[in-house]
Amino acid sequence: MLRRAECDCDRATIMIAHRCVGITSVHRGDFDAGRKHMEASLALYDPNEHAALAYRFAYDPRIANLCYIAHALLHLGYPDQAFEKYTELLQAIRHHRHSPSAAFGLFQSALFCTYSRDLGAYKRDSNFGADEAIVDELISISTEHGFSLWRTAGVILKGWVLIQAGESDSGLAQMRDGIVEWRGHDAKLFVPRWLLMLASALSRLGNPRAALDRIEEGLALITETNERWNETELHLRKGELLLDLKADEKAEASFLHALTVAQHQRAKLWELRAARSLARLWVQGNERQRAHDLLAPVCGWFTEGFATPDIKEARTFLDLVES
Fold first, then answer.
1. Which has the closest alpha carbon to 238: 216, 261, 264?
2. What secondary structure, in 3-state letters, does 50-113 show?
3. Quick check: 96 and 113 in contact, CB under 8 A?
4. Which of 26, 153, 180, 213 is the most buried (most CB within 10 A)?
């Protein structure tokens, strides 16, 4: 598609082609390629010339590009740059009058919050930040305009928010109903993410075996669809659940698998999370030097995001290992 567009030498066609290849790359877990394609697409965007393309290609190209650049940068280990794109995305949504673009952007914004521990429902101090309002707006605009798929996504995300707020029964029911409804649209895209979030909720509610079943379901699905941008997190969550079930050796194997996937995808955020999980396990087994040798170079790689929970916790733990 991209080669054909480049042969045609049409700016708009090349821009859309980069967008399509970029989105596909991110979903497949090739975050670096995805970022480069989305940035190339964004660089070609002229609001005066291309804003109307939203009516031909479902969403405004700039909004779509910002969504996936933010995702890619976060996974690649650039949380400050990712947050800048997230903020830019919210501003773009507010200034665009194309309802499908707004709904899509709100969905991706809320999804971004579930990856970033600095934002929204992923916070652990009961301060849900911006994403609860984003989810409510997503549900509202999707209901008003009949965007049934994005409304369903809003229902799932709202259930997740409710669970984090302590409304466990209603939140879990909402998540489950939403996932069933999503699959009723014959949609497989994003299902591994929904299953991972459901597993996290089940684990939080004290049901690790049911959570592990959802993780295994998600892993089977990514093998079928090749949607691998949640692969590392699925293996990490599996390892955490196996620890809860006192299966330490299997947990270590899952963490090692997560580390390998993260390194293959150049996903430094996930490499850090996997390295921290392994280091913690190894320290418990009196392998402090091994833990240090794994975690130190990963922590040292980062050049930004030092105020984010992931990096702060990893560096604090590394200091304890070195003491």
1. 216
2. HHHHHHCCCCCHHHHHHHHHHHHHHHHCCHHHHHHHHHHHHHHHHHCCCHHHHHHHHHHHHHHH
3. no
4. 153
**DSSP E strand boundaries for 168-297:** none
Read off the pLDDT band of 164 (50, 70, 90).
confident
Mean pLDDT across the chain, nearest whole number?
Answer: 92
Angle formed at CA 314 by CA 241 and CA 280, multiple of 5 degrees: 45
Strand (E) or helix (H) holding 221:
helix 208-225
For residues 292 and 173, give the distance between their C-alpha atoms in angstroms, rounded to a whole number. Answer: 42
On the 0-12 / 13-18 / 19+ scale of CB atoms within 10 A, 60 is buried
Given pLDDT bands bounded at 50, 70 and 90, which one contains residue 2?
low
What does the alpha-carbon distance between residue 255 and residue 276 come to, in Å, rounded to a whole number?
A: 10
Residue whose pair of structure tokens reads 């229902």 in the numeric block: 155
The proportion of the chain whose per-residue pLDDT surpasses 90, expressed as a percent, equals 81
Q: Is the pTM of this model over 0.90?
A: yes
